[in-house]
């Protein structure tokens, strides 16, 4: 996925201005409608585009020019229930708030047809449903989530143990399995939940079960985090040190990003930022459970990045639980790591680079692309490495 260049005057701030201007962006009057699938399908053209996400229907015709992912990407969801597509691409985007002025009504829900994958390589565990059958677990519903997964195997099967300490209701987790399994799944519930899967390739020894992914719909809890200090890494990029509130202890793993949230003229904006570190040359740096760092580039018209310019030490900002797509295990077997980054696209690599250099004997190469010399993050530090 990549962003496409937007026309001038089509930034998020411009969109917020347009949506607050009183211009009619719905084209259907202000009374919310009940919209059938048949009706929705008719609005699939750039000059007349509706989209349904999580049961809400919006007229996105005017938003197309403002969509950072471009027209053709957004049009993939036009005239459709685009919930899965939206969640696949950027489920954190706060569409309800951003598209409020284009809200037309609700989609009349039709029963989904069931599709069964022949050889699934991923599996969704409906923890909420399992939990409902257990008194012990249901006491803890709506509290916190904590999940531990382990596995054992024999020639034929993989057995996943899922320990739930406490969970949020209707939570579902996706396990991206390391190898293919057959479509025969059995679930047993003793002390922990056991999910037994049949290996597609009998006798294949699995090094691990794969990765546990978070549930796909966005349910992150936002906590007020305090800015401890702020300094410049380059002329337009800040190093920010935050502290979690007293009740929170969190150690975002390497590769994780957190979500910052702000309110711009009544529109809630949420953006992901990688958890970084204060320096790439300090081999002794170890992340702790109370503090985290972010390296953030400020765009002159940036809706969220600009908030950090005016945020002073001691002030708070809501931060959502971390998520990650990258897992360190993905590179564990490599002896050499070659990373390519452009601009602040380097931020996800900061902790990977640090880990490889100071905690492993891997060889690391980094190709860093910048518009100007002065844009290079930690230029002097790189020279001393
Ligand atoms: C997983 C992940 C991790 C990230 N980690 C970091 C990080 O560590 N540090 C960091 O600085 N950023 C990071 N980002 C980017 C960050 O989430 C924001 O996208 C970025 O800060 C811009 O947000 P904004 O609200 O300030 O900008 P916006 O208001 O969206 O726009 C910023 C500027 O870019 C222009 N613009 C926006 N989209 C386009 C486009 N398609 N074409 C042309 N111009 C455009 C706008 O006009 C404006 O001038 C990460 C993104 C992801 C997905
Ligand atoms: C359902 C169809 C959609 C598709 C296929 C799609 C696709 C994309 C893609 C490919 C990107 C670029 C991601 C990247 O930088 O890697 C993007 C960004 C973005 N899209 Fe969409 N999009 C869709 C719907 C929407 C809708 C309805 C909104 C309404 C608010 C929206 C808002 C955004 C925003 C705000 C970004 C920038 C995200 C960020 O940088 O944090 N998109 N989209």
UniProtKB/TrEMBL annotation:
One molecular function GO term is:
heme binding
Q: Which InterPro entries match?
A: Cbr1-like_FAD-bd_dom (IPR008333), Cyt_B5-like_heme/steroid-bd (IPR001199), Cyt_B5-like_heme/steroid_sf (IPR036400), Cyt_B5_heme-BS (IPR018506), Cytochrome_b5/Flavoprotein_Rdt (IPR051872), FAD-bd_FR_type (IPR017927), FNR_nucleotide-bd (IPR039261), OxRdtase_FAD/NAD-bd (IPR001433)
Under the heading Pfam families, the entry gives:
Cyt-b5 (PF00173), FAD_binding_6 (PF00970), NAD_binding_1 (PF00175)
Q: Which SUPFAM superfamilies match?
A: Cytochrome b5-like heme/steroid binding domain, Ferredoxin reductase-like, C-terminal NADP-linked domain, Riboflavin synthase domain-like
What sections of the sequence does the record tag as coiled-coil?
none
User: FAD-binding FR-type domain location, by residue?
Assistant: 220-329
Q: Which residues form the Cytochrome b5 heme-binding domain?
A: 32-108
* GO biological process entries: superoxide metabolic process
| Keywords for the protein's UniProt record, in alphabetical order | Heme, Iron, Metal-binding, Oxidoreductase
User: Would you name any one GO CC term?
Assistant: endoplasmic reticulum
Annotated SMART domains: Cyt-b5 (SM01117)
Instruction: Tell me where on the tree of life, at the top rank, the source sits.
Output: Eukaryota
Q: Which PANTHER family match?
A: CYTOCHROME B5 REDUCTASE 4, CYTOCHROME B5 REDUCTASE 4 FAMILY MEMBER
**Which family would the database say this protein is a member of?**
Belongs to the flavoprotein pyridine nucleotide cytochrome reductase family.
The protein's name in its UniProt record: Uncharacterized protein
Taxonomic lineage: Eukaryota, Metazoa, Chordata, Tunicata, Ascidiacea
């Amino acid at each position: 996925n990549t962003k496409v260049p937007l026309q001038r005057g089509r930034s998020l701030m411009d969109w917020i201005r347009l949506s607050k201007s009183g211009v009619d962006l719905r084209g259907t009057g202000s009374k919310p409608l009940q919209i059938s699938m048949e009706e929705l399908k008719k609005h699939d053209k750039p000059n007349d585009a509706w989209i349904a996400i999580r049961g809400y229907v919006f007229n996105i015709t005017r938003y197309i020019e403002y969509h950072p992912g471009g027209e053709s990407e957004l049009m993939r969801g036009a005239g459709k229930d685009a919930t899965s597509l939206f969640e696949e691409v950027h489920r954190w985007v706060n569409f309800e708030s951003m598209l409020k002025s284009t809200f037309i009504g609700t989609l009349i829900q039709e029963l989904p047809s069931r599709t069964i994958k022949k050889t699934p390589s991923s599996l969704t565990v409906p923890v909420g449903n399992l939990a409902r059958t257990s008194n012990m677990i249901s006491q803890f519903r709506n509290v916190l989530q904590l999940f531990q997964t382990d596995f054992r195997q024999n020639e034929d099967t993989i057995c996943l143990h899922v320990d739930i300490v406490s969970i949020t209701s209707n939570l579902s987790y996706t396990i991206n399995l390391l190898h293919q399994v057959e479509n025969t799944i059995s679930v047993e519930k003793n002390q922990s939940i056991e999910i037994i899967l049949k290996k597609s390739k009998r006798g294949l020894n699995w090094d691990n079960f794969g990765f546990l992914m978070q549930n796909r719909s966005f349910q992150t809890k936002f906590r007020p985090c305090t800015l401890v200090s702020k300094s410049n890494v380059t002329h337009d990029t800040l190093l920010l040190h935050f502290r979690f509130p007293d009740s929170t202890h969190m150690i975002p793993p390497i590769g994780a990003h957190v979500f910052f949230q702000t309110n711009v003229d009544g529109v809630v904006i949420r953006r992901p930022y990688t958890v970084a570190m204060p320096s790439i040359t300090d081999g002794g740096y170890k992340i702790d459970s109370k503090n985290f760092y972010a390296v953030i580039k400020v765009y002159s018209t940036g809706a969220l990045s600009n908030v950090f310019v005016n945020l002073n030490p001691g002030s708070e900002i809501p931060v959502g639980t971390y998520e990650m797509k990258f897992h360190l295990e993905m590179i564990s077997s490599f002896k050499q790591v070659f990373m390519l980054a452009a601009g602040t696209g380097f931020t996800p690599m900061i902790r990977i680079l640090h880990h490889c250099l100071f905690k492993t004997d891997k060889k690391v190469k980094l190709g860093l692309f910048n518009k100007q010399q002065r844009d290079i993050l930690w230029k002097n530090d790189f020279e001393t490495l």
